[in-house]
User: Fold this.
Amino acid sequence: MPQQPPEPVPSPDRLANALRTTVGALVRATRSSDRLASIPATALDLLDRQGPMTTADLAAGRGVRHQTMAATVKELTEAGFLTAGPDPADARKRILALTPEGASVLEADRRDRVGLLARTIADSLNDDEQHLLAQALPVLDRIAAGITQDRPTADRGPLTGAW
Assistant:
């Protein structure tokens, strides 16, 4: 029996489009049970990963206008998820930090997302597919690192918090 010729490698454009579509659908699906909306969640996530910072730093880290982030900070502060204290280096500035309540709601969303993914992986993928997924993760990490390397000025991080 003659051997089949190997399938041609899809173009990077085609792969990129399929990856964007698939990852977008995955993120939207896992967001469905989040307690926090995506914009406040991204602000809390950045503070959790990088520590206390000013509203201006938070806005720059997320690539949004200061005024936009100030409204989000006000909302999160009123909800009890952030505190604002004086900046020891510049008394005109306020340093934002997560409260225990903010850390708790962020962690709950992360835990729920991981649980949803774990249940779906266990229910939907056989052992071979789970191994294939595990082998694909470092490849996805390299793609993410390549994008980050090309844009070192802003750490936008995950849109819905760390996984």
